[in-house]
């Protein structure tokens, strides 16, 4: 008999996370984004700008987990579609600031309700208390993996929209 390590794939967390994410992407991409000629990457950029418009392109990359060079191409496509603008920062000529256009905001107004409805479908039957644990756990897992991959705490916190930074800050105060 061999001493092979076993892995119950049906209980393997990365597999479970991937399965849920894949179904969300397929459903949302085919049933909502395709109507607006948007990709998942484009959606992530628009969604990030919806919450905090006028961001540096490098910050958008961190928050969307999109590689900087790929993000540049995505933003170029969104500019051509008239959904965002890209301008030089007034404080630093090397920085580029991305903003939603009225057309981009209008598309978001139509897409966001579908995103929320899909999330509701995904979480149906999961108690609110458990959802809080899932969200905190996924943020923690992201921080752990970012740290082991050599991604700075500041970058990881920025990607999480500041929640990691505030959590780290509150831990330091204790």
Describe the protein's architecture and organization:
The chain is mainly alpha-helical and 174 residues long. It folds into two domains: 9-124, Winged helix-like DNA-binding domain superfamily/Winged helix DNA-binding domain (Arc Repressor Mutant, subunit A, Orthogonal Bundle); 126-167, no CATH class. The protein has helices at residues 13-31, 40-51, 57-64, 68-80, 102-123, 128-148, 153-159, 163-173, and strands at residues 55-56, 84-88, 96-100. A three-stranded antiparallel beta sheet has the order 1-3-2. A hairpin with a 7-residue loop joins strand 2 (84-88) and strand 3. Helix 1 crosses helix 5 and helix 3 packs across helix 7 (153-159). The chain is globular.
């Amino acid at each position: 008999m061999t001493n092979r390590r076993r892995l119950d794939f049906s209980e393997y967390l990365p597999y479970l996370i991937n399965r849920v994410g894949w179904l969300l992407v397929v459903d949302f991409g085919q049933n909502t984004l395709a109507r607006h000629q948007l990709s998942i990457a484009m959606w992530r950029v628009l969604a990030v700008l919806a919450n905090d418009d006028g961001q540096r392109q490098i910050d958008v990359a961190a928050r969307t987990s999109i590689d900087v060079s790929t993000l540049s191409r995505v933003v170029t496509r969104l500019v051509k579609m008239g959904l965002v603008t890209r301008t030089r920062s007034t404080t630093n000529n090397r920085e580029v600031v991305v903003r939603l256009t009225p057309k981009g905001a209008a598309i978001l107004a139509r897409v966001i309700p579908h995103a929320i409805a899909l999330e509701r479908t995904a979480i149906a039957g999961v108690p609110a208390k458990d959802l809080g644990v899932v969200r905190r756990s996924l943020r923690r897992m992201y921080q752990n993996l970012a740290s082991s991959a050599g991604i700075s705490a500041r970058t990881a916190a920025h990607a999480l929209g500041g929640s990691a930074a505030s959590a780290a800050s509150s831990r330091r105060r204790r």
